[in-house]
Every structure is written in structure tokens, then in C-alpha cells.
Design a protein that fits this description.
Helix content is about 15%, strand content about 25%. By secondary structure, the protein is of the alpha+beta class. It has 2 domains: about 10-65, Structural Genomics Hypothetical 15.5 Kd Protein In mrcA-pckA Intergenic Region, Chain A (Roll); about 70-255, Pseudouridine synthase (2-Layer Sandwich), CATH 3.30.2350.10. The strands form 5 sheets. Strands 6, 9, 10, 13, 14, 15, 16 and 17 form an 8-stranded mixed β-sheet that branches. Strand 13 (about 200-205) and strand 14 form a beta hairpin.
Length: about 260
């Protein structure tokens, strides 16, 4: 099989499948992108792949267009990657939120090789799952943690409209000595950008780590809050958005959002 060949005996895989199944070219393309078509026993997901007339093209007996549903990917973004900065108005970062020159996009981490092996969704990883993804959960380059990429228009709309009211949970590593009554002030009593902040849930997780649970978070807000009580931020990690947790996904890996999970 070759991708490009002027030989007339090589035809597009989509045309070959359409001829075999007596279906439309678009239906054939969907079967191919759904991972249901093999050439000489090897699954091929590119409708434009070229095949020879003597090659065996088979369509799985369980092939169904009903399975071609949009997916949502949950990535554990490491620090140093850009995520969602193309939608700056759709949410708030958990630290300074500046665009780092030369930082790679977190979308480069989305691929079959970085899929969580223990993913319980049961979804087959297909190349089409990495196309037409949208991100409405920005995370600053220097922060790590949960970032959501989706093909599902319903989830995209939910995140775009509700990100300001969805509670986000972050683990913040700090250094320094907290001021007297500093924890109480973090929970309620501070201002940011000239406006009083609403009550926020903040608690110590260890001697150097704070847990923040807050809504409507703004870029630079957490570092500014910590600085106001004598602390400086070393690292920020987002571990939950709404009701969806990062769980045990290692840095640089991703899993599918399961059908029963809701933000």
C-alpha cells in the first residue's frame, strides 16, 4: 500500500471500500476513520491511502457508524506546555498566565503513545480522536494539571458557558512563612485587581502545600493571594474541574472522559 502513486492500479481506499460495500464514499470514509477497515490484515485509518487491486481490503463485521461519536480527552499537562491560550476569555489560569516564548503546545502530547494504559473507558484509540479538538480550560504554561480537549459540541458549550461557575481545585506548592491569620485571609478577606474576592476554600495539605477550591479564577490570582499573606508560589497543579478529577493520570498522559462523567 502506498499513499501516492500514479499507477492506475492504485486507487483510494475509500473508493475501494465504497465499491465493495455498495455504499457512498462518505460512508466508506467514516468506516475507515472508525478503525473498521484493514488492508492485508493491517488496520488503516486514512481514507486517502492508496491500495493495489491485488491487496485484500476487509471491513470488520461489527462495523457501525453508531460508534463514531465525538470524544473528550483529559490531559495531565506538564509545566512548560501551552494549553488553551487560544481561548483566553473562556476561563482563568491558576498562575501568571503569560504566554511563554517558544513553549510547545500541549496538543503535541495527545497521541496513541501517551494514552493512559489503565484507561477504563474501553474506547479504542483512533487517529480521528486527535482532530478538531477544542479547549476551553486554559492553564498557564508554568502550571501543570488537568486540561480538557473535546470534539463534543455539547461539552464544549458547557465549558464555554459555565467555566466561570465550575469549581476548580488546585494544589499549590509554596515557600515562606505565612502571616498571622493568613489562612483565614486566604479563605476570605483578600482583594484581587481592586475587587474583593468571594469566600474561597483553602486548606493545608502539608507544610508546603495548600489546597485551593475556587470559582471564576483569574490569571495571577493565586500567586497574588499567596503573596498577600507572605508566601510565594513554587508550583500550581490543577487536579479537578467541576466534578471531573485528574485522578491518577501521570504527567504527559491522557485518558478519555467516560460516558457517566459530568462536569
Amino acid at each position: 500500500m502506498t499513499q501516492q502513486n500514479p499507477d492506475p492500479t492504485h486507487i483510494r481506499l475509500a473508493k475501494r471500500v465504497a465499491d465493495q460495500l455498495k455504499c457512498s464514499r462518505s460512508t466508506a470514509e467514516q468506516f475507515i476513520e472508525g478503525g473498521f477497515v484493514s488492508v492485508d490484515g493491517q488496520t488503516v485509518e486514512a481514507p486517502g491511502a492508496r491500495v493495489r487491486t491485488d491487496q485484500a481490503v476487509a471491513v470488520a463485521p461489527d462495523a457501525s457508524l453508531l460508534e463514531l461519536t465525538p470524544v473528550t480527552l483529559l490531559l495531565h499537562k506538564p509545566a512548560g506546555f501551552e494549553a488553551g491560550l487560544g481561548h483566553p476569555a473562556q476561563g482563568g489560569g491558576t498562575s501568571q498566565g503569560s504566554r511563554s516564548q517558544g513553549a510547545a503546545s500541549a496538543t503535541t502530547l495527545l497521541g496513541a503513545a501517551s494514552h493512559l494504559p489503565e484507561d477504563a473507558s474501553g474506547i479504542r484509540v483512533l487517529q480521528r480522536h486527535f482532530r478538531q479538538l477544542e479547549c476551553f480550560t486554559p492553564l498557564p504554561t508554568e502550571a501543570s494539571g488537568l486540561v480538557v480537549y473535546t470534539q463534543d459540541k455539547r461539552i464544549a458549550r458547557k465549558l464555554a458557558e459555565d467555566i466561570e461557575v465550575l469549581e476548580q481545585e488546585c494544589i499549590v506548592e509554596v515557600r515562606g512563612e505565612i502571616a498571622p491569620n493568613g489562612l483565614q485571609r486566604l479563605c476570605h478577606g483578600l482583594s484581587f485587581n481592586g475587587r474583593p474576592l468571594p469566600p474561597i476554600k483553602v486548606s493545608w495539605q502539608s507544610e508546603t502545600r495548600l489546597r485551593f477550591a475556587l470559582k471564576g479564577i483569574r490569571p495571577g490570582q493565586i500567586p497574588a493571594m499567596c503573596e498577600a499573606v507572605g508566601l510565594s508560589v513554587v508550583a500550581v497543579k490543577r487536579i479537578r474541574i467541576g466534578r471531573v478529577p485528574l485522578a491518577k493520570v501521570p504527567e504527559g498522559q491522557w485518558r478519555y472522559l467516560q460516558p457517566w462523567e459530568r462536569f
